Amino acid sequence: MLKQQSRGTFKEDEGAKLQLKYDTQPFFADFNGDLKLDILYTDLGGKLMVGFQKTMGDYEMIIKDFVGEVALSKAQVPECMEPSPNEQLSVPHSSSFIDLDGDCMPDMFLMRGTGNDIHFEIYIQKKHEN
Fold this sequence. Notes:
Number of strands: 9
Shape: globular
Strand content: 35-45%
Strand order of the largest sheet: 3-4-5-6
Mean pLDDT: 75
Low-confidence stretches: none
C-alpha cells in the first residue's frame, strides 16, 4: 500500500492490520459521529467488530466489540433487545444508515445471519444530553 506524503510523493505503508473473516463484507461508515470513516466487520472468530479510525488520514484503528460499544444492551436500556454478539453481517448485505423514526438522525439498518437465517436489525440513534 502506498500512502501519499505530499504533492506527488508516496511512501510505502503497511496500513491497518484487521483480522477480517475471509468471506465477510465489511461496512464502512462513521459509527461514532467524529467525521472519520470507521469499519464494521466480522473477525476471524465470527464476532461483529468495529474499527474506529484514530486520526484523519491515518490507518491506525481502535478495535471494539460491536455489542456494548455501538449497540446498547438490555442492561443499559431495559426496553432494548439484546443483539447477538456472535452473529456476522450477512453475505451479501444491504446495510445502511437511514432515518427510520422521523427525528432527522440517522438510524442503522443491518442485515445479519448466515445461510437461510437472514434477518434485519434496526438500531435507533438516541440524542445526546449535551
